[in-house]
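Re-running Leucine Rich repeats (2 copies) to confirm reproducibility after the cluster update. Everything else is unchanged from the original entry.
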Amino acid sequence: MIRLFTSTIIILSAFVHAASADELAEQLRVNELMDKVGVEPIWTEQYLDIYIEDRLTVIPDNLKLLREAGSIRSIVVEKMPGLPSRDYSFLKKTKVDRLVIFWHIGSTKEMLSYVRECDTLRELVLGLCEVTPDDAKTLAECRQLASISISPARITKAHFDALGKASPNLKKLRIQSGNNDKLVAFDIAELKALQLTTLTLKGFDVTEDTKKTIRSSLDPCEVKFE
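Result of re-run:
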């Protein structure tokens, strides 16, 4: 793993190498964070993660590294306050295909405007990040994404309506309610327009009858309730 610290950049190697005990411990910690939002971490020889730690103040120098590191495929941004929205501009120049963000503070809409410009990005996870219905509209405009995971404090029908306008490229959608929001079949009606293979709904107040109706209406999409 490559770790970028607030004042120091440590470059281990552009190649995958045997992980040290400290690196394995770090991987486990990040794995646990990802598990909270239902994301399967990637630790394979095909993927080399960047871990950006707390209050990255030397971002211009780090962005040069990101732009030149062609082998880096997956980026994890974690800890408050995260990066300022404008600092996600590095996505316009990198070839990353997986971006996981925990606790983004700032304009989600502005951050997503940079996500939209990253043609290679296929998977976006916004873990514990606020996403308004208007942000969901911008998210739907990220036509390149094949997998989206969001977990805002509240989920409304407006969120589902906005995401229902996403690209046919979108195959996996995971939505987690942070407030045990009540879910009825009518809420997800707009998702029928998508060509999803998997829909995961977590943390919702939903009856067994509603689960059956949703699964039937979205068939052949696999619908998971957690």
